[in-house]
Amino acid sequence: MDNRHVWTGSLILAIVCIAFLIKPAHGANEYMNGMGGHCESATLEPYMEYNKTENDGTGSSDYGYNDDRATVGVRLRIPLGSTCTKEYKTLMFKNEQLKQQLEMLKLCARYKDLELGPEFAEVKQMCSQVKKKDKPATN
Length: 139
Description:
This protein has a two-stranded antiparallel sheet. The protein is built from three helices and two strands. It has 139 residues and is α+β, with helices and mostly antiparallel strands.
């Protein structure tokens, strides 16, 4: 057996082993990984197209012409077989609010002891209500 065949076979085997060991990457933000991407409603899309055609008169025709065309319009797109119901949209909206609140809670706990400047006014305002619960007094 030729050395090149052994080397090529070893390389292919190594690549296959590495491919089986690789795991998918996930974002560090476990709350904000949305799953509602398939939900699509009817949309209106404005569009504009412009075409310019020039013919200098060579070839089969004996005359030249310029043709400029512009089209402006609105396109209605309606997805077929959509799973978006009112109930599903309401549930997804509530889930997104919950994800945002959980993320803010995590971030506020992480940065609560920092002195934040005026450029972090929104963070200060959103984290102002995050406080530890008072422990009940024991006798």
